[in-house]
Amino acid sequence: MNNMEAVYMKTDKPAWWRFGHVWLLIAGPALVIVAGLVTAWIAISHPDPVLSEDAYRQGLEINKTLRQEADRSLMPAQQARNHAATPADAPVRRAP
Hints:
By secondary structure, the protein is an all-alpha fold. The protein is built from 3 helices and no strands.
C-alpha cells in the first residue's frame, strides 16, 4: 500500500450513528411500528362484543321509546306556553 492509498482509507468522519438527523429519520418509522404493536395488543386483549341478529330492530325500538318519552316530557311545557299566549278575556272556542 502506497502513501496515497493510506490517505484515502483514513477518514476523519464520525460513524453514522453519531449524527442526530439519522436518529430523527429512524424515530418516525420506529414509532409507527411501536404504535401498531400497541394497537394490535389492545385489539386482541379487548375484543368487541358480538351483536345479536336483530340488533338493528332493537335499536329502532329503543329510539322510538326514547322519542315518545321526550315528547311526553315536553307536553306540560307546550300546554303552559300555549296557555300563556292566550289572553284571559279571549273567548274560548270549542270544537263542535
